[in-house]
Amino acid sequence: MSEEPKVGVFVCHCGMNIAGTINVKEVIEYSMTLPHVVDAKEYIFMCSAPGQDLIKDSVKKSGLNRVVVAACSPSMHEPTFRRAVEEAGLNRYLLEMVNIREQSSWVHSDEKQKATEKTKDLIRMAVAKASLLEPLEDLRFGVQPASLILGGGVAGLRASLDLAERGYKVHLVEELPTLGGRAARLGKLAHVDMKGAEMVGSLIKAVVSNPNVTAHVNSEVTELDGSVGYFKANIKYKPRFVDAKCTLCGECFRVCPVEVPNEYEFGISKRRAIYLPFKEAYPPVAVIDSETCTRCGECVKVCEPHAIDLDEKGHDLEAIAGGVVLATGFSPYEPPEGEYGYGHSKKVLTLFQLERLLDEDGPTGGELKLEGSTPRTLAFIMCVGSLGTTKNAHQYCSRMCCASALKNILTIKDRYPEVEIYTIYKDMRTYGRGDERLYERAAERLVKFIMFEAPPTVNVKSDNLEVRVHDATLQEDLLIPADAVVLAVGMSPSQSLPKVRSVVKVGCSAEGFLREAHLKLRPVEAPADGIYLAGSVTSPKNIVESVMAGSASAAKAAALFGKEEIRIEPMIAQVTEEICSGCAICIAMCPYGAISRKQKDEKRVAEVDKALCKACGACVAACPSGAMQQAGFKDIQMMAQIAALTEKRGA
Amino acid sequence: MSDQFEPKIALFACNWCTYAALDLAGTSRMKYPPNFRVIKVMCSGRIDPQFVVEAFRDGADGVLVAGCHLGDCHYIEGNYKALRRMTLLRKMLDTMGIERERLRLEWISASEAARFVQIAREMVEQIKPLGPLAPRLQVNQ
User: What domains, with CATH codes, occur in chain B?
Assistant: First the structure.
């Protein structure tokens, strides 16, 4: 840069968030003493319109060519200030932000003077770096108007349908042999006269009949390259062993000698190795579970349409998409053996198993029968696996279990009015619209509600179960003899998440769910551009919330697909060809294969593919000659920032 | 050493994990010692060992290099590169007479604000008894 740097420092009060701890006046006075600083101003909210105008005015009046804003985290307002700087006529990358709210005032509020000193240091370092910033141009890329959606439950289906209806191509990838997800296994839904399978079935029908959707069922995404605007996925089709000629005549189910617990009925009934997951499954084609199939060939013999091929190998398919929606759902909390008697008695079941028992299409045809008889007394234990009730439990509330348990309680009371029901809970949270009415109706039907502080215990006896609980309201120990116990289990992060995360890089929250870009402002976007999060991948959600998140993620993806081109921050690696000796150390460093060598006059030099570079800077750190540099994080810029760690008078 | 000594610690934080953890510590109003000066990089794999040496030379009494957990790197494997570089650098620091405790490499994910706070407290306590680094370097020069 030939022109002399003229830096302006703008310190935000953020109301009292910053000014309440940091002596802003002192910081401003100090900033004015720093090399190249020609103006320093403070304002109560720098991100507001008058705050931004202050910056723009100063750029014009003082002839600033670099701007340092000391305010909140760049994840919050860097785009705002980049825009302001651009509107002031400067290149948007001639801005350096100093995070004095998250990194100073909020965390050192009891050490005001030290926080002020730290703030001065951070600003001095930023000014040193800012003086060496260079104008950069955004990278511009086209957008593939197609989406890749992982997970065929309600959230993924809703997102698929919304995008397909807007005219965008959708690749919907479902790991299991059927679309539908968890909601398809619910019986009667709350507040609507519809079963889970019907509700999901209508969505599936709309999705698969839309010509824009390609449903890849029984498939997994094994590789994902590229970034926002252009992702290339490898979709691996697992062998199904049965093709579309299948008429679902059922002959094969009859002859298959293998019997295993049916996961679609949560283990309360058995299925064969060749099976249809459930009546409404899509595609309506039998599937062979390759892990338990003995390859005896009995099914092949009886299959009239010759739909079975036991030698099927599966295949791979490439899909191109501009954006990716992750909608891989949750896993129900699985109580460890012995927790509340679970696994020690068939009369201790989970809420999901109860849903199956009460469903007319379930294994008992909707009859509430356990070990051949209908229980006369039922105890529901709530908050199982949630609210830290036991050693293995999550700390969070799973949100859907209260309303779901109450819905089932009312179904039981409708069908078996004489059954006595106890609901033992830590906290009753019927927060959804209409859910509180479920609670009132249950109370009207004389369901007994017992609040606990210490979790109840379940003692498995030969003929029944004994539930002991200290009633927190009565302050008395109660003993409830029950014929069955239902555990209202919460939602855990999906067991498939590790696999998903090995393909798509998205971080996790402390609870193990996927983490969004911003909890409140960008709840359906991942931190990386072009990746969207729908449904219970981010936190426990009920059906309504999952469908909303599906639509929201589709709207976000559609906004991307509607763009002719996207601008990407240009913090990528760049080669100074004059210095590069072509040693190729950088090539081995790059995890994306973005660097190659080309002939340049008499020598070979490194070349960076702008579309492939993801801006990590690993090659820069390795370059022995300094020929490889990262825009915005050049060695001289970093070194200047580091050198300013301490004050050097007269330097 | 005097009780008044407050070490200055340069914190190289990757954009995706540790920088986000610092933001979370802030929004959660956690408290940690005000000794850290944050230098953001996109990935811990960007951290040239020279940055660390330069930080020590320019007055840092300690350096904390922090990135995503192994296997969790936003750029697949940048943190492995940081691990290799810092392991080698430590050996060099030995020969320079810079105590090992002054350089720490940690994996701090975006949700581990509490872990950062714990590491920050530990590190300040470990460096305090070592005293300032700068005067010694100046003597050596």
Answer: 9-135 (3.40.50)
